[in-house]
Amino acid sequence: MHRYYSQEKKFSTESLRSSKVGIFGSGPISNFLCAYLAGLGIGSAVLVSNDRKTPKNSNEFLARMRGHRKPKVKSIADMMGFINPDMKVIPFPSIPNRIFTEGCDVIVDTTNDPDHKYLTDKYSKETGSLLLSCSSSPTGFSVFANDYSEKEYNLSPSMDIFKDVDQGSFTSAIAAAICADEIRKKACPVDEDIKLEKRIDYELLTSQRYYPKYRNLRRGNLECCVDEDKRVLVVGAGGIGTYALLNLAMLGCAIDVYDGDIVEMKNLNRQLLYYSAIGDNKAIEAAEKLQMIGKDVEVMPYPENITEKVVERLLKKEYAAVFSCVDNWKSRKLINQYCVETSTPMFDGGVTSFDGDLRTYIPGESDCLDCRTGYDDLIDDEIENFSCRNLSANVVMPNAIVGALMAAESMRFIGHVSDGVNDRTNKVINIPAPEGNTFLYRSNDNYKRFMQVETKKICRTEKTYENRCFCRGKNEVCYAA
Ligand SMILES: [Zn+2]
Fold this sequence. Notes:
This protein has helices at about 15, 30-40, 60-65, 70-85, 115-125, 170-185, 240-250, 280-290, 310-315, 330-340, 370-375, 375-385, 395-415, 465-470; strands at about 20-25, 45-50, 90, 105-110, 130-135, 140-145, 200-205, 225, 230-235, 255-260, 300, 320-325, 345-350, 355-360, 415-420, 425-430, 440, 450-455. The chain is an alpha/beta fold.
């Protein structure tokens, strides 16, 4: 049994292994996509880019982790080989050419360059392959799918949307995960698959976040800046934690991370930082790997799980945001308790093989997660029947999306977006509060593929919760159903 066989049971690992993907570009989106595809177990890839610059930006994390080996495509290919030793990756330090697309089932253009996109679109059409064209800014992204083996659409109107704009961190992370998900559907279809129809757009600087009107995507030289004095807490360094940590570290956030678990073989398909660390503690290993991205990354590992005792200790500390990346309700309850007592924003994630949820508790804006979820019932149920820990393997994409969404939604509390980075009119842009407090990713639902909802509030006034929950009295929220 090979370690990358640990995938969703419905996926044919043989189909994944026999597929070949052409990846054009070596910027942030490309770095994320390459890492995801290695974890997913894609058999082979060609990686094409003539960008020979040393990766300055921490968003190009794979290239940075490899050190200063040039060109970038070679560094990235080396790292893919570490993550998945079975994958065959051929790097071409070159401009796009029709030759590189031979035999590829999917072609992905990961650049923001419209001329580049024009060429990859042309080659995809000629070879009748699925084209995924994605681009990003620090606060937005656009992913366009065009399957030339089925139907021919016109060129994407968003081809030039982010021309000459630097790609962002969490936006590139999400765009790449959407691409990886569509690549999986092409490489090994399952019955419930619904492919991405045409386009999906995201913009943090709109309250609706997803499906903003194309014209609402922000251009210009934006930058996500994290305040220097802010520190965050990440609890759990597993599937979701890996990506919360990666995205927060890239933003330049100072992090305390708690996890008492050790790395197991079955983790490696999605917890991509741990390729060389079986048997080691996750928090310590994550801190070590993230340090490889840049000297300024500040991650303090605590090799222990969350308990009442740990919460007591944490109460003496102050965090700008808390990220709950755990796999059980007891831990969620403890984290929620800490966040309510200290009025700290909480970001809680959960995934299956196809779907991901992010639920937020913002003091003063929403009820706490215990009020919304009722943790005690779930804890009882978990002890008796079911635990996330017992789930069969899950896969990289939903974890990557939820982890990156956590970083995105926390930006309001840990920093700000600044405009005019390259000129002298540097000004702060307000990040609007989202419309809801639960964010969904549904891989097989074109309507709900990305969605935010206002969680229905359940009236608990008759129940014991009223007297027990700490967030009552802090929020004047009516619980009428
Ligand atoms: Zn509450």
